[in-house]
Structure formats: C-alpha cells, structure tokens
DNA sequence: GATAGACCTTACACCTACTGGAAGGTCAAC
DNA sequence: GTTGACCTTCCAGTAGGTGTAAGGTCTATC
C-alpha cells in the first residue's frame, strides 16, 4: 500500500505522513524497489492512532508520548490517564479564556450602533479602557 | 520615551513593538540622534490600542483593520461592528470545538482505571474507534 | 579616563503543525 | 511513446512572536 492509499485509509494527507516521518513521530516507512514508501496494516494502525489523537486535540509532542505508551505493553494506565488529565486541564483553561473573549466581543457588538456614524463604542473601548 | 518605557506603558514587550513595526502594523518610530526609537503619547495610544485589540482576541491582520478604522475619522461604526461580529462568530465556533474536545477528554478520563494495569480505555479508543 | 552594567540597534534562527511548490523519477493506460 | 497521475526530495512560507548573538550607547562609579 503506497502513501496516498495509506493517507486515505488513515485520514491524513500524504504530506502530513511524510512530515510525521521526518520529525520521527512515526518510524521510517519501508520502501519498495522503486523507492516508494510501502505501508502494511500495522503501519496503518499507527497512522490512524495518530490521526485520532490529533483530532482529539493532542499536540504532536503529546501524540509522541501517547504513541510510546500505545506501543509499550508494560505501560500503566495511570500514566495514560495523567497525560489526558493534563490535556483536559489545558483545554478547560482555554475554554475559560475564550468564553471571556466572547463576552467581551458580545458586549462590544451590543454597544456599537452599527450605522453611518463614526463614533463607536468598540473603537472607544480599544482606544481607552477607562471610557469603558 | 524610549522603547522599554513604551513597552511598560503599553503592556507589550520591546521585541513585540519592533516586530509590529517590522511587519508595518504600526508606522516606523521616530529616532533620536543616537538611532534609538523615540515614542510620544500619540504613539503610545496606538501601542495601547493594538495591545488591547490583541488581548481581546483579534489577529494581527484584524488589528491592522481596526487600527485603520481607529485612525480614520470618516469611518462608519457599521464597518467596525461587522468586523467584530465576524470575530465573535469565529470565537464562538472555536468554543464549540473546544467544548467537544473537553467532553471527549472527560469521557476518556472517566473510562480509564488509572492504575498499574496496562489495559486502558484511552489507548483502546485511540487505537480503534469501533471499541469505543 | 576606564570600566561595568543596562540599555539600544540589527539580523538570523527557532517555535507549531503543517502546506505549497519546484524539479525530477516512475507507473499504468491508451 | 506520450499523457497523466503517482512518487521522491528539498526549500520556503504560514502566525505571532521569542531567543540569541554581535555590536553600539548611555550612565554611574572609581
């Protein structure tokens, strides 16, 4: 199975697969006589694992750790859990920040007339926090 | 007022101010005889404006537009409002995505025993969406 | 006058997680 | 034998800065 088939089957792009190989997130693919990369079902499992972990929100470095746990039969599930708990905390913090941002934006939108006049609460607010 | 004082007064770092000048988000600072950048209160207003807009979540390109509206007395508040409404929509979409991510992570954490056993719902889930 | 330390300048490299494009080799079909 | 769709590598660019180096300048102290 060559790279574009592996890409389709895993949900990654060929470019991304090559990139993952280059940064050694995944091992080097075996090569056919023509130098083309060749993937088997085990390789595909790894590609899918990474695709899902990325889609779930893990960074490439976190995927590296998850992958090493995935491939280690001696792992303890506690290690996996603490990794995911850490990620959860960071995601929750990001949500709090974005919610705050949304509230600010909503407030700005409500206080701006949105007509042909130049005076505008949004500009005023960004220009001078005090007049808020 | 030289760059580090302007930095302190605006909440940006000197590096960031130089960066903003380099990408022409802000105009070139005037220079003293020694070649040092020199900021007046008007410059400071612009720096503060940008700092607040960035902190509110606007991208540098969005800041560029906001700044040009800020500096244009002929502006219509409707232009400002639609810019901010667009941003609000994007932020809300991001929140939805992060909430989904958080739910997934919470579910994974709950279903992982977190002990010395290797078997773990997180790894299983990432390895094979079907066994989820 | 010399020197130390804190500033300033520019320029280049690095970060994340890819993506686009160029230049060239290979394969399958017609 | 040629076309088009693959494949290969490598380099550059994206956003929004930060780190570091090499060098100039300012101020204070000895």
Automatic annotation (TrEMBL), chains A, B:
CDD domains named among the record's database cross-references: HTH_CueR
GO CC field: cytoplasm
Location of the protein in the cell: Cytoplasm
Keywords: Cytoplasm, DNA-binding, Transcription, Transcription regulation
Taxonomy, superkingdom: Bacteria
PROSITE patterns assigned: HTH_MERR_2
Gene Ontology biological-process entries: positive regulation of DNA-templated transcription
InterPro entries, A to Z: CueR (IPR011789), DNA-bd_dom_put_sf (IPR009061), MerR-type_HTH_dom (IPR000551), MerR_fam (IPR047057), Tscrpt_reg_MerR_DNA-bd (IPR015358)
Spans traversing the lipid bilayer: none
Gene Ontology MF, one: copper ion binding
Domain HTH merR-type: residue ranges: 1-69
NCBIfam families found in the cross-reference section: CueR
Name this protein carries in UniProt: Cu(I)-responsive transcriptional regulator
Organism: Pseudomaricurvus hydrocarbonicus
UniProt lineage: Bacteria, Pseudomonadati, Pseudomonadota, Gammaproteobacteria, Cellvibrionales
């Amino acid at each position: 199975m060559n790279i574009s088939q592996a890409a389709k089957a895993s949900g990654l792009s060929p470019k991304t697969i090559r990139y993952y190989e280059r940064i050694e997130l995944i091992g080097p693919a075996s090569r056919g006589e023509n130098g083309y990369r060749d993937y088997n079902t085990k390789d595909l499992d790894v590609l899918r694992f990474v695709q899902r972990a990325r889609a779930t929100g893990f960074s490439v470095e976190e995927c590296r750790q998850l992958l090493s746990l995935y491939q280690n039969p001696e792992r303890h599930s506690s290690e996996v859990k603490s990794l995911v708990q850490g990620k959860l905390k960071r995601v929750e913090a990001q949500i709090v920040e974005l919610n705050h941002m949304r509230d600010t934006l909503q407030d700005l939108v409500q206080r701006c007339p949105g007509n042909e006049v130049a005076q505008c609460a949004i500009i005023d607010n960004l220009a001078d926090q005090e007049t808020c």
